[in-house]
Amino acid sequence: MSFANSFIYQYLKNIYLRTKVYLAPEQEVDRCYFKSYGKHCNLKDPHNLIEKIYWTELHGDTTLWTLCADKYRVREYIKEKGLIDYMPQLYGHWDRVNDIDFDPLPDSFVIKSNNGCGTVHVVHDKHHCNIKRLKKELNKWMAIPYGWSNAQLHYLRIKPCIVAEQLLSNDYSDISPGSLVDFKVWCINGKPEYILVVFDRTNEDHRIEIFDTEWNYHPEFIKPRLRKEEASFKKPDCLNDILELSKVISEPFPEIRVDFYIVNKKPVIGELTFTAGYGNCTEEFFVKMGEEVELNR
User: Fold this and answer.
1) How far apart are CA 274 and CA 258, in angstroms?
2) How many CB atoms lie within 10 A of CB 167?
3) Is 159 exposed, middle or buried (0-12, 13-18, 19+ CB in 10 A)?
4) What is the pLDDT of residue 16?
5) Is the pLDDT of residue 18 over 90?
6) Which of 185, 210, 241, 258 is the most core-located residue (most Cβ within 10 A)?
């Protein structure tokens, strides 16, 4: 599919989803849930973590979700917590793609939208980068709102912009040569519960491992197509730091996933996620965590 045809398809799909979610957001949540688990999502009496997340999305106050899911404005929250030094260096942000001046940027950087999923472009050398093509891609990201799919409504309140940040080095190039490794700490009621390690990403797939906070491996929580009986990752030297940072960041929320990278053996905050994708983990995993979520928080 050509770039133009792909854009038209995404644009029309967005219009369809916007209409559907505006009229009945519960149906869009149920569509995605049924696709993963073969049964309907219980939003009237939620039990597992996914049901409770979407109950909160549809009925709770998600104002702080919007701030923290914004990949630019999340820095306000992290700074308030006294942890801004744990974030990648910010080179700039722009409300319009045509306002981006690439000359002051370093030779290598990461450029992304602040309100999407997967809308990230790694520039290893800007002198060999097709800037015209890159701007076209950035404009596409800005043109299509993120959040209608799966009724992730808190994203729709984010004012879109483009962000350029430091390109981080890869401490795990021997295990995941093509991508950085994400250490995703899922926290319940301000307490870290499990760490999802996502690595070896490609455009088509990725690998995942799940550990508890003592770094015991739990392959039973991973869907069979991604499950591997032996873990690839040893306990990171900075695990205690990651867990302590997660406690501080997650304190106000009944649930949140705090994503980290490890660079030069030190944690770097990636992003904060509230409606994380759930297609990789078993329903038993989300039932176990959902039992602990206090919706009255």
Assistant:
1) 9
2) 18
3) exposed
4) 81
5) no
6) 258
Backbone angles phi, psi at 168, to 5 degrees: -85, 150
Tokens of 88: 């990648």
Tell me the mean pLDDT in the region 204-215.
92
Percent of the chain clearing pLDDT 70 (strictly above): 97
Question: What is the total residue count of the chain?
Answer: 297
CA 261 to chain centre: 13
H/E stretch holding 290 reads helix 283-290
Task: Please compute Rg for the chain using Cα positions.
Answer: 19
Look up residue 228 and give its amino acid.
K
> What pTM, to 2 d.p., does this model score?
0.92
Contact yes or no for 270/261 (Cβ under 8 A): yes
pLDDT over 90 at 7, yes or no: no
Sign of the torsion formed by the C-alpha atoms of 133, 276, 154 and 244 = negative
Tokens for 168, please give them. Answer: 């981080």
Q: SS3 for 111?
A: strand
Q: State pLDDT tens for residues 134-193.
A: 999 999 999 988 999 889 999 999 999 999 999 999 999 999 998 999 999 999 999 999
- Mean pLDDT across the stretch 82-108? 97
In the 8-state DSSP scheme, what is residue 154? G
The pLDDT of 227-236, averaged and rounded, is 94
Handedness of CA 152, 153, 154, 159 (dihedral sign): positive
Question: Given the structure tokens 């795990």, which residue do they identify?
Answer: 172
Closest CA to 111 of 103, 102, 178: 102
Q: How far apart are CA 184 and CA 191, in angstroms?
A: 13
Q: At what angle do helices 25-37 and 49-59 cross, to 10 degrees?
A: 170
Distance (Å, whole) CA 168 – CA 89: 10
Nearest to 137 by CA among 126, 121, 152: 121
Alpha carbons 52 and 254: distance in angstroms, whole number: 10
How many whole angstroms separate alpha carbon 46 and alpha carbon 37?
15
